[in-house]
## 1
Amino acid sequence: MEKRIDIALYIVVLISGIMIFRLWNLQILKGNEYKKIDERNRLRVLNILPPRGIIYDRNNRALVKNVPSFDITVVKEDIPKDPETLDELGRLIGMKKEEIVAMIERKPVKPFESLTLKEDVSFAEVAKVEARKVDFPGLQINVVGGREYMYGHSASHVLGYIGNLSIEQLRDPHYSDVPPESVIGQFGIEKIYDRNLRGIAGKKVIEVDVMGRIMQVVRIQRPIKGQNIRLTIDINLQVEAEKRLRDKTGAVVALVPDTGEVLVLASSPAFDPNLFVRGIRSRDWKKLISDRRKPLLNRAIQSQYPPGSTFKIITAITALEEGLVSENTEYYCNGSLYFGRVFRCWKWAGHEHVQLQKALVESCDVYFYEIAKELDIDTLAQYAFGYGLGRPTGVELEGEAKGIVPTSGWKRETRKDRWYTGETLNTVIGQGYLSTTPIQMARVMATIVNGGKLYRPYLFMESGSGAKAEGVVKIRPENTELIKKALSGVVKDKKGTGRHAYSELVSIGGKTGTTQVVGGIDRGDDVPDKYKDHAWFLGYAPADRPSIAVAVFIEHGGQGSLSAAPIAKDIIEAYFKGMNNNEGGAFLSP
Amino acid sequence: MKGGPFCPRDPFIMIDRRLINNFDWSILLVALILSLIGVLTIYSATRPVLDAVQKTFYMRQLYWIALSLISFFVLASIDYRWFMKYAYLLFLIGVVLLVMVLIVGRKGMGAQRWIPLGFMSFQPSEFFKVLFIITISRYLSFMKPGEGIGFPELVKMITVFLALPVVLILRQPDLGTALLLFFIFILMVLAAGIRKKIIVTVLVISIISLPFAGKILWDGLKDYQKLRITAFIDPQADPQGVGYHVNQSKITVGSGGFWGKGYMKGTQGPYRFLPENHTDFIFSIYAEEWGFAGSLVLFLMYFFIIWRGFDTAKKARDTEGHFLVLGVTFMFSLYLFINIGMTLGMVPVVGVPLPLMSYGGTALLSNFLALSMIENVRMRRFALYY
């Protein structure tokens, strides 16, 4: 009897030993592993999205505001595995089972971070999800910072828009510190200054029970609000410019000559950035993409066309500085000049006796042909480069075009041919290979009237404060005065091509330009739009102490004098009227 | 031994100085400590995190402990030979109760195990185990020492004492208790001694018939019982389903580490990741909060009770007492190992509570009654004649 009891006791000891060994295995050997699983069981990390910085114009008018929008998100690990529950979840949020699965597979998400299933849902849907949350652990309503662009189409190319992170961006280590459910700048200033605007996301580590109910907050790290940004843009002026561009295709850029601040950067047609905020609908997207006038194109920095006669200012400065002409140098214009072939002046009747002043005021082509005969193309190009042509201006927007300033080297490289003086004749009047963007030409105007200091145009007030000129064009002050006098004449004189820019309010100076679209067609009003010339006008005001420089470019606008000049005048007048209201009209001196 | 157990003339002479002197306080003390640890663990496992009010499981368990202590003393003071005298009658009452539970029983969690008594529910199968042990002990005490149980006796015992209650309990259905009765029976028969011929025959027959019997047994199982067994074999196959229990239990135990998370610091219970945390899986919660160190202490205490049981069996004055204590100790050990094995993922989940610690009044009371049987025999181990 006793022997059997001892055997029983040994067996009990043996089983106890096995169990203690098992305990050792679970608690000591695999303890840390199970601790991790246990934490994963109950710990959830929620991102707290920071409010995005507000964008203001130069007069502190808010251009955007944050509006909350609701997303349905789910913690990836909590997505039901069995098809029936998944189906039920789909019914709750109005999505197909397959869509949900596809979404999970497509979007890379860190473990236990939430994944956005449906964006911008209505209050009714929010209530529905909240009521059924118990049945679907991990399902959350996320308040996402939506964005309202209060001025609609206005300055849309400058402001840009925000949107959800794309698949590529989610994979991009660049955005690794951005919670996947946040919205970031995808275009324009919103994109360029996204790092400033978006702020730093906070984190909330919470404990949840098996139902996903929050038991307690373990740790909270407050988000840091995005930085507000003040732009150099004057929204009233921008709106005015856009009003004048309505129904036209073109661009307006206005700069402060002494700093490079961009007052206006308008491109027409524009688009409504509000469409993009919560992901653009495909219908809207198709409409934008198929529009032949390309509303998404920022013509102010992306369209490249020959500058036409506006370029004559640079030619004149080159000729003056290089000693090819002086104020009184005179040529005779009989309507054309023969140099291997006939080069016509725009005025077929001719300008007769022309000095430099008259050549600019009446935009005589022959006068400049005469200069071209003596002028080395590479010397001219040096001046053009000096005024910032042939390279992007560096304004804080993506996709800026650089334009072309032809040189003999450039010709050799791209055309495998030498440079012919005949081509110089085309170049001096702003035709031929030359191509420029409106913002480049606005900068040219600014640089000429400020005496040769080349500033980088900028949109973010802080980025340019105290900025030094990136270059100085060597120009004698008397030559600057000479040119400015001529440019005033362009607007003031009875025969001036820019007389349509004349203002009773303020003294305006400037230069018209017309870019030939097709040669040999009579330039009249009855020409179909697509064959009409492109119109340019560069202007500044006031004449004595310029505080604004403007470039207006209208595609197929016809003559610069007729279509572009009045727009420049209106904008300049609006600027000084606005100044009057804002600052007491200190600059008003007609 | 022939002629039945010795019957005292007056069973109700309880206050005997020698009896009190021989009373073994250590068993009662350890059992009490274990059940109080149980209450503390129940308190922690069911503590509210969001809801302001805690469910009063721990209070109810305390009442049951009080009731169990009183029952322990009352039962220990009645000479066990009285139970032996009326063993078959008690057995009959037990069977009647098992039938009653099927007729008037209250259903709960898919099974019909409780008889409602107004203020509380009563689970006859819990008490039946003790009655069963008394009955088998009584029968075994008639065996001639050293002879071993022969084939006819075995068949008689199986048909008369085992088959009927097992079938009735399976009808509830309560697979755990039915299996337990079966195992207690086998262990007691083995302890009493059985002829080698029978062991060999049974082994041969079971090996040959295993595929058929296995099939019949498997088909006889309810779906949830089958799921539990498949989940035991491969818990990862369906981690959200039946395997969930086992997985969560392992996580709970494992995350305790060496020193544990500390009392009231466990999360698996109150956050309800581990279901049944205050009943069958109370050990997991204990191991989570007290770690490997605390679990060892717990093992030692349980082992003390088992050792004390075997020791008492050796010292018992008569074979009835010997088998009674052995049966009770076997039952206690089986419960302990099956429950802990279950929480550690070594045994299928069969709904067996941890003795003394799991929430549940009837089980607690029946555990104390079983231990009082050990006490009963131990304090009367020196032949006392009236």
## 2
Amino acid sequence: MIETKNLTKNYGNLTAVDNLNLTIKDGDIFGFIGPNGAGKTTTMRILVTLLEPFGGSAFINGLNVAKEGKKVRRLVGYMPDFMGVYDDLKVFEYLEFFAAAFGIERKKRKSIVEGVLELTDLESKKSATVDSLSRGMQQRLGLARVLIHDPKVLILDEPASGLDPRARIEIRELLRELKRMGKTIMISSHILSELEEICDHVGIIEHGRLVFSGTLEEIRPRLGIESKVRVSVADHQDKATELLSALPQVRQVQALGGEIAVTFHEGKNTAGIVARTLVNAGLDIISIQPERLKLDDAFLQLTKGVVH
Amino acid sequence: MTMALASTFSNLFDPVRLFGPIFDKELRVSSRRPRNYLLRFAYILLLSIFILSIWYSTLVMRSFGSAVYQISRLSSAGKQAISTIVWFQFIAAQLIAIVMLSSSISDEIHTGTLSVLLTTPISSFQIVTGKLLSKLLQLMLLLAISLPLLAIVRIFGGVTWDYIVSSICITMTAAVLMGTLSLLLSMIFRHAYNVIIVTILGYMLVFVALAGLFNMLAVKGIFIFDENVTQSILALINPFAAFAATNANLLQSGVPMFFSWPVHCLLMLVVTAVLIALAVWRVRKAALVSTFSSTTKLWPAEILERMLTRIFYKAGSKSPDSSIIPVTGPPIVWKEMRKGFVGHSRTDRIMTILLIVLFCLTAILLLLSPRNNIFSRYLILGLYWIVMIRIALFSAGSISGEKEARTWPVLLVTTLGDKEIIRGKAIAAIRRNIPLLLLYLVLICISYASFYNLGIRMFPQILISLLITAVSTVCSILFLAGIGVYFGVRLKTTTTAVAATVVSYLIMTYLFRIMFSVSWSILLSRFRGGSTIWIFYASSITYSLAMGGIGIYQMRCAVRRVRRDIF
């Protein structure tokens, strides 16, 4: 588990992280979102012992990151936002070097390195020099390095930045696989739609303060956003509009061309209510689609100062 | 009418109009950089200390005899002092020109601004001359502010204005030539330190080693020209020989048959013009081909690397893929040693080949011409400095290089201890230079053996001197490795970390030497007789050990600071 208590970090007069309280449960994928300069990278650097906090404390699996640095480093795998690689090493050597740096016994290194190469699908590149790899492959190599000492917690600072769509999908699949392996993952990204697909929880940070932490569904009531369902029926659109308007959970019904937009007071099982009502009335449904709250929208609203 | 004429005239000779906006921009930027003011201050300070130390050693230390005798010695002391000062200026001006222009184009290439400049109407000529002249203007300023100091020393008498003017002209043309070469090389090599080392090595090879070789062949009568003609030709085409000839003129010893410094300066300016033309032709290509690729191969260096690895570096157990070397021993040392003794880049290989050629030429000069070994003495000194700069480069660069490549934070989140990281970097920096250090040791042994062959049969003294040289070299290595890792940890870029390390070494060597000569003279005045030589030995050892001690202390400071300036 990752936990921060009133975590604060100053750079001169600038407060990069301001009394940050954060909790990430074991086995979760936690999306850490915020505009540039919000304090995401600083928080991550404190968690991986690269920076000392100015105030407050941070814990990983109960270990204080400021006091028990070496034990924390054994538990954590960190991938920085701009990851450099040793361009004079081969892929296998690069990973074996980090295995040695994490104190893994020489006899075990080979099998471990081969294991992570297989997991990250880099087996065919093991004799290639690191600088000859494409950007996407270098990112995968970075993930392989992070996994070399089998850490319980992964802290990944924008792992998909600068990658093409294919490489991004590959990284996303890899993260899902790591979640299945039981890793706790804290991930920051500017590509919010990607976090939406893989994250269990998200935290939105602005000016060093956490403005929201929870699931995507929990953001909706917090923002006062209504839940909408779009439905289209084969015929009798007027009848369908009338039926749906009569429902007590529904606030507003609008006919938009061939579609009906239904706005609810609450956001639970809205599509089910609409479907049940129309089917019970003997109407044929062509399509029904609940309108999801996009993470980008939530991010924009939360970081515009709408919610304090 | 007069106003219009004046305006036309000033427009015609406006440097910004002549050399373009680059010249203007460089001057503006340089005036805002505190390091340029620091450089001027440091230069004047060093020159003042230098003059004071010469004054002290030539007049104060030898203040015996009557007043009339001492006054009669003033002119010879003046000659001695001024000749030493202009030598200092001659070497310092060239070094400063090389350093100032070493990153002039490579920085523009690396930041991508050169390509942008080339899309503007600014011509390649304006880019090259703008960069070159703006830096050389600063150098001229440095030489100009040292003129009053030279004028003061001239009061001693015995030094003609012709000597002052000729030495300054030779110094200026040599500095312009070396600066232009440095600028040209900065289009080829990415890092400033590589440009500096390659330029110095090239200079030593062409102007010292080859000149020494031709001179030796002429002396032995196996060259196409006789000794006098060879020396005259060398003095015309070689700044080092020209400067030596000018000094010989002053001190009335060994003047070449024919030597004209204006002709020499003109020739140097012609060579400079050719280099500028090359730079103008090359600058557009340089914007496209930014640096040497690491895959480029130079086969002699490949063979050498394999040979050295086999001799000095156990690769551990065999791997199924022969190109993969398993990690053995401390991981940091392994990783640094993986870069090889020669290095993987073409720059490293060019440097190694130049060094080997220089070592061979020096050995030939020492073996075949022990009596006339002024060139080999300078070469040994130069090679010693190159080896020391390499140690500084490997120790400081191995950490600051990781910061530049953004691998430093990744290394620090491993479970490796801070001490383990710093120790590994320092050990690897020394180990990677072992082949060169051994070659240097061979040269020193040849040099001492030639003394012995010359009939100076003082075997115990030679042995002790050899021992002191060995202790001094080891302590210097410790100092450089220690201070190198310290600056590597503290500073962000390799060029500044290496420069800080080398300058620290220079200052420490220089200041320690002055302190040593002062304490030596005090001791000499109190203990006259056989014990003085032992005081000299004891002082040398103490001075060396102090340097080594500082190096070890700095290494410990580096360990304490590892996690402070990570980003």
## 3
Amino acid sequence: MEESADNPKIDRRKFLVTGIRATIVAGIGGVAVLTARKTLAGQTVWQLDPAKCIQCGRCATSCVLAQSAVRCTHVYAMCGYCDLCGGYFKPETKTLTTGAENQLCPTNAIRRKFVEDPFFEYTIDEPLCIGCGKCVKGCGAFGNGSLQLQVRQNICVHCNECSIARNCPADAFNRVPASKPYLFKGFEQGNTKDKNREDRG
Amino acid sequence: MKKRIALLLMTILLTVQFLDVQAVQRFPKPEFESGYVQPETLQPSPRAELLAVMDLVVLAAALAFITWLVLKKRSRMGVFWTSLFSLAYFGFYREGCICSIGAIQNVTLALFDSSYVIPLTVIGFFILPLVSTLFFGRTFCAGVCPFGAMQDLVAFKPQRMGVRLNAVLGLIPYLYLGLAVLYAATGTDFVICRYDPFVGIFRFDASLGMFLFAGILLISGIFIARPYCRFLCPYGVLLNWMSRFSWRHLTITPAGCIQCRLCENSCPYDAIDMPVTEKNPEERPVTLRKLILISLLVPLFALFGGFTGSQLHETLAGVNGKVQLARTLLDTAALAVKPEPFEITAYKSSGKPASQVFAEATEVLRQFYTGGWILGCFVGLVFGIILARRLIISYNADYTPNKGRCFSCARCVDYCPVTPLPKEERI
């Protein structure tokens, strides 16, 4: 008491400020505890749910990247290896050749390769794919739906707010734990492999 | 008994049907005879998680280092080089996300939406700068935030803005923070990220609008130093509050102020409080009148703001997807538009009943009504307090940095001619 008596005004102020600081620390701690209850040790990534996707084509244009991080992914285990592929050919195509006029893909990103009669293998040339979803729509309408749009996690820059998610009319984008970044429709994920993850064990 | 058999049959039938859907595809997978090996569907991994932890470590280290530079070394050059590093690391290398400013929204969403899971690093990015500011002032702004670092670099010819203009423009961040929290809490949008001017520059991939916004900020930033930090940044509002109660803060002079006025024009951010030494303090009746005026006006502003906010809730909710969908469904003219909007197509394919859409939209509107009141009260309160501050004269003998507004950039330090006291005389 006697020590503070010579300058009580400053001490009162100091006391007040210290009190407020302590309150704020408690407040921040409270927020930390409240949020940390539902926290995740790892990161979250954006995931496209193909079951909700309606192939509107906005993935191709809404991404912050000039070439969208959403690309067409081929789930080979679901493919029927059709000669008349609904994802490869335009609906009115008469001769099933790889001519540009027959192709549905606007960027020539699907490769068609003969396997054995009457089956053809289709692969996506990913650097060319713009994620427009035209082939996905065709495959879903006339085929097995083995072509599906997916966020390619190695290309995605992981914006805090995905600008495609904001524009998605079907609400198909979700934040998911980075440990399970891919989701395919009508197919168990176990059969596909992630080479990087395997390496890591 | 009959009922039971019927039920059993139905179950079996349904199961068979369900299995059919799962197993049989339109075109079954062929049995290859040529020895064709089916390729694997590649699923490339995201950025390694360890790097995210490293970001947090770098953030903590940069905060500690710059705080030491500002408070102990008092080195402007050190702050400058640290800000260059932060711009390179948090800006260009990490490409902006996640940043402390945007983390406000993640934390808000985590508090309001129980289904949202927030990564630990995001909590770290939100809380570390706040705590450091609470103890050492806004050293985060000085040279850890890439936004601040970028604008600090272009502040070549800063002009004085005047107290009034500063106060009026200084209101914008409060409004921005309020809106960002409202939209994040209702799960509508992350507006801070949406109108983020610099992330496009960090990624060399800006849209035209973003590029123009960044260009305007950087060019005007030559004359109005750090326009985003001072007149937009919502995180700056929180840091401002923290810094006011900071335990230690940058001082202009290392020892005692000698009123030489050399630092008077050194601050590009108008954040130095000039000495106010009134010989004759205000009379008691005058201060009493002011006190009554303030205690009447401030609640009035808050109430008025809250009412305005609540009246605007339908407009504010207009950008919410659920509300938009419900409005389109109610509007027969909009439904007749061909080609059908994608939102309607998606709604139809989801098989959601219309009643559920309306119920969800009503719930969102209710949230916006409450949120509108809170947002309005908050902005009104801030407006009232800023006005009230103009009525109160605070006496101050020396040139001191304004703890709320000072970014701790340490420019003023170089102007002070006072030599530091020898170690044994320091308190």
## 4
Amino acid sequence: MDLDGDGLDDVISGSYWPGDLFWFAGLGEGKYAAGEKLKDVSGKDLNSGGTWKSENEPDMESLAAAPHAADLDGDGDFDLLVGNIAGHVILIPNEGTATEPKFTGAHRRTIQAGGEDLRVEGGDAGPTIVDWDRDGRDDLIVGAGNGAVNLYRNEGTAKEPRYAKAVVLVSPGANYGTIAHGSEAAGPGMRAKVCATDYDGDGQLDLLVGDFSSTMLPEPVLDEAQKAKKAELEAERERLNGEYQKLAEKAVKPDDPQYQALSEKLSKVYQDLRPLEAGSEMHGWVWFFRGKAAPKTVQR
Amino acid sequence: MKRGLWVLAACVGVATSARAVASGAGESDRFEKPVRIEAGGKLIDVEIGHAAPWVYDFDDDGKRDLLVGQFGSGKLRIYRNEGTDKAPKYGEPQWFVAGGAVATVPAG
């Protein structure tokens, strides 16, 4: 993907906090320049946030940016599609040219599918563009926070894509991507990130799905006193989480001191519980979904 | 501290919505049963998870390689294809280097 049309492929990346977008310009001979933040035409950092805010006040929606560059309006330059933590996919059109990209944050728009704002379950949208049904029009595939992968067929044109509502290609991960001790993972857990390609060169499109999963370690053996302590701490955790949920439902702002106070109490409870509970290990695997040939329709 | 607050809120949201889910397998009429890709004889497993794969001929040798982003330090792994396009085979990865250093993006 050559973002600045200089004949040398570049690398782009999103990031978690506050969701800036980075460009590593290709220099040829396998070398790349140090990463630069992609900028809006006004010089501000570009991101996918719902409301345009100053650099000192990151918009919470724009976290966990996952970009994909593709020509989405058929004008010969790379536009940016950015998935974010809210589960939306934001289009930032390139209003420059193939050799001089120009992005204006204020001209962002939320991609729609089936006539409404596209939003994947569990947030953390990870979009990619590919002509999945091979009808000459690029479709949209999006990995979701709950581990699912959805296909949004383009029912419009290359210049004006119009995406249909979701068709599930990969079902959500089981049990929030947590695998019991002694079991094996059967498929992607959470936060699916997808590459659609013919991975094994057999002429069929496949999916590669990266994930986030956790495997549980064995439960520790506890004496009666420890079991009682654990039950007490679990009840306290439940109570504090309930209070946290109530604040969130009342849309109390994230910087309110009530959150801070609750957070500190919760941290202590989690810390005390840790030696009494089974621990877990984090994983990020790459799952290969080999595409089967479509069944032939019978001609009558 | 702010990030901790946000992650906790997001987790509460996910727990409510993901209650009744099926297994993580793909639609069985579209795909074979999924398998995890290996490199150097073991499963590719990135630090702090959040693997983000991309297929691309990185070393320009005519064979498609595998790039995998990770949450850990916001780095990117390059798995060079030591096999063929039809039967890819990978060894140990190298980190993506840019501007003379291992490239990173902010991971919070």
